[in-house]
Every structure is written in structure tokens, then in C-alpha cells.
Amino acid sequence: MSCCGSTSSPFLPLPLRLPRSHAQTLTLTPPRRVRPFSSSLSAAPSVSDPFVLEIAEKLEDSLSSSPIQSLPPLQTLRESSSRSLLSTPWPTRKSDPFRFTDISYLRKYPLVPTQTPAIPSSPIDSPFSNLLVIVDGVLAPSLSRLSALPDGVFVGSIGNAPAGALYDRIQSVLASGSEFEKDLFWDLNSVGALDVAVIYVPLRVRMLEPIHVQFGYSGGAGEGEEIMAMSNPRVLVVAEEGAEVALVEEHFGVDGGEEKCYWANPVMEIVVEDGAKVSHSYVQRQPIKAAHVKWTVARQKSSSTYNLVEVNTGAKLSRHNLHIQQLGPDTVTELSSFHLSSRNKQIHDLHSRLVLDHPRGYSRQLHKCIVCESEAHAIFDGNIKVNRFAQNTDAGQQAKCLLLAPQALVHVKPNLQIVADDVKCSHGAAISDLEDQQLFYFRARGVDLKTARDALIFSFGAEVVRQIPFKPIQEKVANEVKELFTSL
Questions:
Q1: What distance in Å separates the CA atoms of residue 484 and residue 463, rounded to the nearest whole number?
Q2: Which has the minimum average pLDDT: 2-16, 206-220, 252-266, 410-424?
Q3: Residue 488 contacts residue 481 (beta carbons within 8 Å)
Q4: What is d(CA 230, CA 161) in angstroms, rounded to the nearest whole number?
Q5: Can you give the residue ranges of every domain in the chain?
Q6: Sheet of 138-139, strand order
Q7: Percentage of the chain modeled with pLDDT above 90
Q8: Is the pLDDT confidence value at 19 over 60?
Q9: Mean of the pLDDT values across residues 447-474?
Q10: Nearest-5° angle of CA 296, CA 298, CA 304?
């Protein structure tokens, strides 16, 4: 469906559940009192949520007295979000951003913020020369490999950023933030971040090798021990005018974390200056007992390019909040994502928002998801807003979903809001099981039913996986997806 004009109404959400009888028929369809956590604020407002304040208080108590924690940028982040948390309730299904997403798993076990990272005993493998390792929210220099960086490029802790122009630049970016509606999880990260990893690429520097950012989580205790460890990694990426950099981001469990229950709450901010290019590959493959709630925010200036390829297969609960602002003309944004809910009651959620404010903006978004198990769930809420001065915009959005089991569920909400009157925009959604004629094509050539289904299902996600621009990561992700399919 295409939309073009002064105003367009967004699609209504499409809840789809496969009935138990036939997988191919689709139907559209007072807590305990806690003290206020911030010592700088004497009392919490009456609208405060005691559970939220309890989490924030635990995060504050977990902060160390290291010099990093006293740096002005971290203090600014913490103070701003502390004030916000005093009036932010815990999200419920009655609040619009979470009405399809059940986050009750985050409250199932007592929360214990991580304080000292468990450094893995064995090296972390990477096919690239530039490796940045973050374990439980803290940089691990002993596991990182950064000796091959070009001159002027800085990758490391904000505490090691050289004083002067670079440090001032980092501080101004963190302080400025973005004009968008942040949520509870952004603020919790700001309050609980133990460090900020900085990737800075100076004016007109083009990096030939990608920067591999690996996030390892050791977890707290096993699920039976009823403890949920929480970590808040934070990364800031700045690509100055004319610079080019590629990021490969991975999230996974380490040293027993594969069997433990934990909550990863990362934030990544990306600034793409005039004429700069950022290629971003994001892979989430955490264990089934983990929860993963992530914010990615990108700000693009004139003639810049941001490309994101996302593959999300892990965690019991995974939610990605993606917010992109085009802050100049002739800006290019390309987004591709593949979510696979392959285990019982697994939830994968992508909430994306792209705001175009200037002429000749270009964007493409492709979201694909597969729900393979009964009671598993996938959510896509994609919002593209074309404001008044974004004339000659070319924006496209497409969502495609496969439901392969009885009681599998997907909510799809493509949303295109147009105020400009000279644009070319389209959006749409398609949801189904495999088509009989597709299977017949294979069966007529002697291929058995299971092999035919496996081939079609894998090729559905491979359209996104193949867009990862680095063969070692692409092949690694493809093999992991195949293993998940064979275990069904």
C-alpha cells in the first residue's frame, strides 16, 4: 500500500494468532515503601512508583567511587535521569508503547545490579583486528585488541579520553541528547552505567577494518536461585564530517552466563556528521533465561548515511527501541531486521521511529520475523514521520512475518505519518504460514516435506542475514540460525 499526501492515518495493529486446530488459518484479531533514591532530591512526588525507585536506589548503591563515576558527563546523565525516574511508572500493558509486550519477566526475580565484572577465563574470539570487549557493562582492556586503529581514532573508556577538544566533544554530545521520548529503560541505564565506551572517528578518516564490539554477560545466579543480575552497558559513537566506520555489535553470555538469569539493558548513541557513513551490524544471541532491552539512537546530519542490519534470535524477552533522526537534507537511512522466536513463550519486539525533517531524505526499512513455537510472540511497531519541510522524501517500510505453530502470535503495526505534500512513501505488512504452492514446487522435484519447509524458512531470514557486510559474521549468524531451526 502506498501513501502520499498531506496526512495519512497509521495502520491499526494487527494481532494474529494461529488457532490450535489449524496452523495455516489466520484470524485478525500497594508495594512496600522505599526511600527516595537520589540524595539531591529531598522527596519523591506523589506519582512515584516504589518499584522503579527501588531499582534506581539499588543502581545508585552499586556505583563505585572510581574516578570514572565522578566525571561530569556521567554525573549529568545520572542527574537528569534521576529526576525523570521520580515520575516514571513501571510500564504496564495499559501504556501504549507496551500494550503488546509482556515485560513481567523482568519482575520475576529480585534484581541485583552487577558491580564487578566477571572477566572470562578464555580469550574472546574475533576475526577482526579491532576488538572492544565489554563485560557486564564494564570495558575489559585485557580482552580488547585496539593496536591497529588509524591515527586520531579513539576507542576506549570515557575515563581514558584525552583532555582537550576530544573530551569536550564527547561531553557536549552526551549532554545534548536527542529530542525524543525516552522511556524508563533509557533512564535506568543512565543511572546505572558504570562506564561509557567511546568510539570516535575524526574528520575525514575512513576506517578499512570494522570495530567489533562484543558485549559479554556473566549473569548472576541460575534461574532456580531466583536472582536476576542487571548490567547497563553504554556506548557512544561519533563519526565526524566525512568519516566512515563500520561497527559489528554482538551480545552473548560468557563463563556460565549461558545458563544464568540476567537482564542486559544497553544503550548505544550514534552521531553521524555531515557526509559521514556508519555501517552497523547488530547480533543478539543471548541465552533463553536472559532479558535484553536495548536502546539505539542515531542522529544523522546532511548527506550522511546510516545502515543497520539486525539479527535477533536470543533471550526470553528481547526489546529493541530504535530511534533515528535525519537532521539534514540528502540523508540516507537503511534498516533491515530479522527476529526469530524459536522457543516457547519467547518474545521479540522491535519498536522503531524514524523522523525526517529535511528535504530529499531517503529511507528503507525491511522487518522480517518468524514465530516457530506455540505461545511465542513477535512485535513490530514501526513509525516513520515525514514532517512539513521534508519535501521530496522517498521512504519505504515493509514487514513480513511467518507463523509456523498453533497459538503463535505476532502484532504488526506499520505506521507512516506524512505532513509534507511532495513525497513518495509506502508501507505494508504480510503475515502467513508457508504457501502450499511453495511447498509443491519442491515436492514436485523429489524434495521431502521437511527439507522443503526447512529450506523455505531459512531463506526467508537469509534475505536479511546476507546483508551483513562481513562474511565471517554472516556465516556465523547463518550457522546459528540453522542450528535453531534443526532443534525445532
A1: 17
A2: 2-16
A3: no
A4: 26
A5: 2-29+105-180+193-486
A6: 2-3, 424-432, 394-403, 362-371, 332-341, 305-312, 277-284, 244-253, 211-217, 130-135, 138-139
A7: 64
A8: no
A9: 92
A10: 150
